[in-house]
């Protein structure tokens, strides 16, 4: 999914839109890309203004927040690319909720102290707002599956930021029920992790979990209703596969954590050693 020129320069070929771009000599491809970019500006998925992709890249400042700007710069203008909130400490050491107070170290939030739950810790790239929210919604509900590429890169960068080599054995995308999968045509969680450049020790198992029954969308339900709605909705499709393993569960958004808790329950019941959660956004 990371479409790069493998033969010559290794540069990103996304957005070039020229058949056979990977086979072009290294001087020709960037030149054609610059010409295509100058002649055919992209339309921002946020504000709908036309913009030049190279200009968006030039605005990067090397900060953590620019990771998302860089990831989304082919699809959002320089202004929109920066309009989102990166997750930053202080946050809940377990569920990853960002505290309103911006001073002090990470610590457990009141809810996690009261009810520790089943997964060990959850982390996200950003808050579910601004451009990140728009991009996730465009991917999920408008079929802009090409956004899985930059969003997947952002998610991978977040994974590498919070987890060290050897921390995780298995990566499992949260599954959709087959009926919803048929309707949508893809599982966004799987699209996000499919192209991760994983080392041999970490394995992505696309069907580690299965959704046993269809559940109404969680949107509009409160915390308790979400928990009831999703209870026992997940099981393992490969019994014994997760025994003794540290599993990283991946999804697009974590809201109350009810879905992640239900998935973690199924995995721990199967014998997983621990379950962590990574999402693009934290609502
Ligand atoms: Zn814009
Ligand atoms: Zn918490």
Automatic annotation (TrEMBL):
Q: Name one GO molecular function term.
A: glycosyltransferase activity
- Gene3D superfamilies in alphabetical order: 3.40.50.2020
* Span of domain Phosphoribosyltransferase: 237-281
Matching InterPro entries = ComF/GntX_DNA_util-trans (IPR051910), PRTase-like (IPR029057), PRTase_dom (IPR000836)
Query: A Pfam family matched by this chain, by name?
Result: Pribosyltran
Q: Which UniProt keywords apply?
A: Glycosyltransferase, Transferase
What SUPFAM superfamilies is this protein classified in?
Answer: PRTase-like
**Spans through the membrane:** none
Similarity field: Belongs to the ComF/GntX family.
Can you name this protein? Amidophosphoribosyltransferase
Organism per entry:
Desulfosarcina widdelii
